[in-house]
């Protein structure tokens, strides 16, 4: 059962489905943080959920200290998790760009 003619195009990499954001993240935590990254929004810290980024900045400029900003260890964990998400999203975006470029090159050849 040999097939003749050009092979069908491969499927594009899935956007958002089973993306590996690395370890030490709770179930769904990576996807939830990634939504903020994809929308180019500030990632809320503990105690900031429900507030907009502008409201938080205004409160902090007045002198309020948000609960996620107080503890050095909590900040370190938050930064590590955010960096995991950023690097995973960059890898996903780069894979999508290379896939699209490959498709354009293949379409040019046909």
Report on this structure.
This protein has helices at 29-38, 53-62, 67-70, 72-109. It is an all-alpha fold and 110 residues long. α1 (29-38) crosses α4.
Give the topology:
Elements: H1 29-38, H2 53-62, H3 67-70, H4 72-109
Helix pairs in contact: 1-4
Average of the residue pLDDT scores: 75
Round the Cα radius of gyration to an integer and report it: 20 Å
Sheet/helix structural class: mainly alpha
Task: Classify the helix fraction into a percent range.
Answer: 55-70%
- What's the helix-strand series? HHHH
Low-confidence stretches: 12-16
Q: DSSP strand (E) fraction?
A: under 5%
Number of helical regions: 4
Short description:
The protein is mostly helical and 110 residues long. It has four helices and no strands.
Keywords:
110 residues; mainly alpha; 0% strand; 56% helix
């Amino acid at each position: 059962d040999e097939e003749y003619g050009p092979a069908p195009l491969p499927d594009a990499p899935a956007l958002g489905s089973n993306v590996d954001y690395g370890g030490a993240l709770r179930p769904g935590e990576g996807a939830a943080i990634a939504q903020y990254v994809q929308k180019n929004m500030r990632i809320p810290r503990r105690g900031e959920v429900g507030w907009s980024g502008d409201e938080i900045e205004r409160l902090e400029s007045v002198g309020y200290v948000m609960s996620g900003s107080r503890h050095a260890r909590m900040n370190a964990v938050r930064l590590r998790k955010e960096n995991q998400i950023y690097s995973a999203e960059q890898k996903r975006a780069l894979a999508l760009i290379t896939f699209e470029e490959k498709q354009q090159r293949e379409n040019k050849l046909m």
